[in-house]
Design brief:
The protein has 4 helices and no strands. The chain is mostly helical. It starts with a helix and ends with a helix.
């Protein structure tokens, strides 16, 4: 069995990679992917905590996070398509310029 500390380190490192991706990247698609990485980190943490406490609560929370991630992808993809149609770019900085028009 994998020790809980290793799973915590893995989950924290995934979450930090996601936060770093949001802060550094300017492409909307990569920002959405970084949010997905952060959600997966939290899901891994819930499953590990549920396994540590010998119950299925972590797996139930994982299913809820998976549902949230699927809905986020559907809405986010619609927004990405609309932004690309209007600006022909996926740069987040151009979203601010859309308010000025």
């Amino acid at each position: 069995m994998i020790p809980l500390e290793h799973i915590l380190i893995f989950s924290i490192s995934l979450f930090v990679i996601g936060v770093f991706g949001i802060l550094v990247r300017r492409n909307l698609l990569f920002i959405l992917i970084s949010i997905e990485i952060m959600l997966n980190a939290v899901a891994v943490l819930f499953v590990a905590a549920g396994n540590y406490h010998n119950n299925a609560d972590g797996q139930i929370m994982y299913l809820l996070i998976l549902t949230l991630a699927a809905s986020e992808v559907a809405v986010g993809l619609g927004l990405v398509i609309q932004m690309y149609r209007r600006t022909l770019s996926l740069d987040v900085d151009q979203l601010a310029s859309m308010n000025e028009q």
